[in-house]
Amino acid sequence: MKPARIVVLTIALGAGGLAAYLASGSDPENKQIAAAKPVAELSTVDVLVAKSDIGLGQMVKADDLQWQTWPVASASNSFIRRSDHPDAPRQYAGSTVRVPFMAGEPIREQKLVKANSGFMAAILPSGMRAISTDISPETAAGGFILPDDRVDVILSKRDKAVGAGGQDVVSSQIILSNVRVLAIDQAPKEKDGQNTLLGKTVTLELAPEQAETLARARQSGTLALALRSIADANAVENRPEGQARPTGANINIVRYGVPTTQTTQK
């Protein structure tokens, strides 16, 4: 074989081998894939949560609760864990809710009242009393007073006016100020697009001396509730507990053309 042909053949074989090498290197199946770094496994724990919204005072059923997986790092120690209380849904069934739960919110034992405990007694702060009184939409801000609102209690009564021919005079005064509403006897209802409570009885949180004041006032006149702004919830009254606020208001009575001024303050 001639030397020139041998050189051409050698070049052709070399080019073919180079092409084959390049083709094998560009094939995705034959590429060497760098090993991915291992991902650390996230530690989780099953916690007890509310399956749906659970309202204040509602009795919890086992079907209202479910287990949900949470990262261990964000699971509070106050959460109820499946590893510690595997029978928790049945264990807490029958409890009463003292603070509402939203769907998916972890259940906390501090927000529940066990079935063998009184709900109202459980939510009352130490030293306070729960006392109820009759109300109507006219005497309870049209039904817009809700549990946990703050109110003033106003006493209105009729007195015999002195020097006015025995004509009755209506006087009103605030006898209790900034007291908390614990409950109203009916569930929320929709009125003009807003939630209202059109109940007949309201339960107030009072100190013992305030409870005595309210009991006496119920026998002497009509009681009305004045709803306070939420911004005034922490307002401090500068007078002794249970003492009525003096009104000092004057009423002008005209009898047979003769004006007479009477004060409503006792």
Q: Whole-number radius of gyration?
A: 38 Å
Main sheet specs: 5 strands, antiparallel
* Estimated structural class: alpha+beta
Outline the low-pLDDT stretches.
238-266
In helices, the fraction of residues equals: 10-25%
Q: Total number of helical segments?
A: 4
Percent strand: 25-35%
Shape, principal axes of CA atoms: elongated
Number of spatially distinct domains: 2
Mean pLDDT, all residues = 75
Element order: H for helix, E for strand: HEEHEEHEEEEEEHEEE
Straight-line distance between termini: 139 Å
Count all strands and give the number: 13
How do the strands of the widest beta sheet line up side by side?
5-10-7-6-11
Overview of the structural elements:
This protein has 266 residues and is an alpha+beta fold. It is built from four helices and 13 strands. The chain has helices at residues 3-26, 88-92, 119-123, 208-220; strands spanning 44-50, 65-71, 96-97, 112-113, 129-134, 150-160, 168-184, 189-191, 194-196, 201-206, 222-227, 250-255, 258-263. Strands 5-10-7-6-11 form a five-stranded antiparallel β-sheet. A two-stranded antiparallel ribbon has the order 1-2. The longest helix is centred in the N-terminal third of the chain and has 24 residues, at 3-26. It starts with a helix and ends with a strand.
Compact description:
With 266 residues, the protein is of the alpha+beta class.
Blueprint of the fold:
Elements: H1 3-26, E1 44-50, E2 65-71, H2 88-92, E3 96-97, E4 112-113, H3 119-123, E5 129-134, E6 150-160, E7 168-184, E8 189-191, E9 194-196, E10 201-206, H4 208-220, E11 222-227, E12 250-255, E13 258-263
Antiparallel strand pairs: 1-2, 3-4, 5-10, 6-7, 6-11, 7-10, 8-9, 12-13
